[in-house]
What does this fold into?
Amino acid sequence: MKITDIQINHMTRPVGFDLSDLQIDFATEGQWNSETQKSLKIWTDSPGQPAFQQTADYTDNVFRPEIRLQPRTRYFVEIGVSNTDESAKGTSWFETGKMNEPYLGSWLGNADKNIENTLFRKKFILSAGVKNARLYATGLGVYEARLNGQKIGTEYLAPGLTAYDQWVQVQTYDVTNLLQGGQNELLFSVGDGWYKGNFLYSGGRENIYGDQQRILAELHLELVDGTEEVIVTDSSWETAAGPVTKSGIYYGEDFDGTFVIDNWQEAEILNAPKDVLTDRYSLPLTIQDELPVKEVLLTPKGEKILDFGQNHAGTLSFYNHLPKGHEVIFSFGEILQDGNFYRDNLRCARAQWHVKSDGEEKWIKPAFTYFGFRYVKVEGLEVVNPEDFKAPVIYSQMERTGSFKSDNTKVNRLFQNIMWGQRSNFFDVPTDCPQRDERLGWTGDAEIFSDTAAYNMSTYQFFKKYSRDMLLEQQTHEGMLTMYAPSMKDDDGGNAIWGDAATIIPWNMYLHYGDSAILKQNYQAMKAWVDWIGRHTKKAGMWINDFQLGDWLAMDGQDKATPAGATDNDYLASIYYLNSARIVAKSASILGYEADKQKYDALAAVIKKNIQDEFVTKAGRIASDTQTARVMALQFDVVDKEQEPQVISDLVKRIHQDRDHITTGFAGLAFLNRTLSRFGEHELAVTIFLNEDKPSWLYAVNLGATTIWERWNSVLADGHMNPAGMNSLNHYSFGSIASWMYEYLLGFRDYTPGMQKIKLAPLFTAKLQHLQGSLRTSYGLLKVEYQLETNSDHLIEIELSVPFGMQVTVDLPRSENVVIYVNSMSYSEKIVLTGGEYHISYVPTKMYIETYSMASTPIEILNNSKLKEQFIALLPEVYKSFDHQGNVYHMMGNKPLTEVLARQKVSKDRLEKFKRILETIRK
It folds into this structure.
């Protein structure tokens, strides 16, 4: 028995983060009895009594200690679990940043604002060894810091992307082991980044938040002789230009290894505000993986191409062994066209790395940019050695929490693509794409995918930071939410679905993690969004006659060249208005604002009635004849219970008219399969899911996609890019189908906030006979594996692992009045399982995997080689009657076998024998 995975505000050993509303939770390995207790102690490294301690009966795995934290302090955590038989302890720690402590350092700059790469250095002497040292630092645009020549920390592009005129995050680094007695040098290197480099789309803009690179830092030292020192950014620092001659998020980077760093001069103290400085929210951008070169290609045009085999976001590492002054150029792209390098879909993003060698043999990589790519074109090398290249994969440091695997390799590749789409685009903000001149924190994409994201990875802190980005934009736009956050000073916004990220994202994080702190942080902004709609709509209790993007990238629009869907935009906008009002009401109830709950409940009731009056007939007919319109009516409870059968019937009819293919954009996409499965049309949902022609998920897989595309048809069947343009091959919103995979294929459904209680309610299909998956919760790993009808008895077998502290209610399909065996014990009623390992088996009331029968057609039977042999052996005269060149085969081959045999003289014993054979062979 042991305690594992202690989390502080959903992070492992956080350093320098904003730790408001402290929450500590933990998982355990092993099982405990019902008399279990939990205990928490928190203390600092100072001697004395614990700063906080608590003992309580174990009802959940959460502590919310009321403790006044001090700045720049490491706190140690000890958690205990015990009962009359045994006990276990686990330890962890966290460390605060500057909190509200005043900053002693000043903002520094170089007098020449046009420097592309500003260096700042401070040389200092330490009279004694160092016991403890912390660097509190930030820079604008993006920076790297080195101490005595070694990079400080492991993150890239700090301090991340924020609205820098409103908040700038400060990073905390433990630099104890990088210091030495005697001479030391602290060096900062700064590039433009998002702060002043070219950003936004359609050519972008320069100097969005400022026009001068700068830094601010404090180095706090505790020496072994007991003395303390603080080194701050002040006029004693020096500054000069560095060897990066140009850089930008879209541009890439130019590095001149022959550049001579000279002309050091006194740094300029800037009269810039410090009240924007905060402890960090952003998870660090770090290297999470490293891809080797899969293949070196020589294209028909004679280009030398590195193929890393996987589209992703990150950078390129190159082992330089070139002579001094030799130049090499690396260009980045997602796809080849006719075997040649292609980058037109990157639009205005140059996306290159230019290197002029310094003559030193070493690994090098860009410092102030990143790329979205699979392929790299190499210019300037006679011989391209694949061992000289690696592709570091960079994204916000989130742990993977979900897994999925089936007996269908294409589905497995799709799930990997969804994961890679998230890895590529969760880059401090949820970008829409990592490659072209965009990479903005689009609110609509983030809102649609947020639920799936939380299944896949530990995203609470990521979205806590992004929610703050949104909140600050709302504060400067009277409650309206901009199209992306940070807005980069673009005031466009106020659209349904996109703006509803203000309510939906915090709510989804609350549901997944059970921590109401994110509702508390964003409650006023959530209200402000709903109130803004109320002030700006043309009709009370409806949202109509405003410009909307609607069901973006749908395939059912009248103009196939545009991404606008056919679903009525007023209808969609009003439904999202309804949903956001309901979320605010529920959030108000959780936070104890009863008057607000009543207010927004009443508003939601008015909106629902108005939608019904405007868009729904009494019989349940929806005004827009689209998949999305019906899905939204059911998903958001717009129609009454008695109207639901009509809506689902019309939805199924519409899908059949659409050739059983999806036609929604990303608004309807997130809920289509869920709605079908929820309302008894699971097989249709599976059919849509497994389609392989466009529009479908597996269409892209069949064309070699390794991520999720922006459009259903971003690449045409012949491998050429869609000429309509706007073709990112690394988006993520269409990956929201994974929520359905977790909920209806694996069965993880109907959970309480934080997932202490969850229903295991899979829906099976013969098209996917073996499934396994898991979900890492704060309680531990919930894991399941299904094998459908493993033998001739049609037995379904399930392996289930439930962590201690969780309660799983098992609800299996087609199990009415059936005995279910759990670890050899029989159950015929409700099954509720707590922590443990379980083998579950039962025979469903109706089989999933069909066998052949006398209703099968001769064509079906003859297409099975085993059955064909038996058919010829037992019924040779029937087989001979088929003229494979003539009409009889075509006329009778698709008829039921019973009808075919009725025309033949076949003995009853041979018929019975063949019938028994048919029933033993599965389709």
Summary: The chain is about 25% helix and 25% strand. The chain has a mean pLDDT of 94. The first helix runs from residue 193 to 196. The CA atoms of residues 20 and 479 lie 24 Å apart.
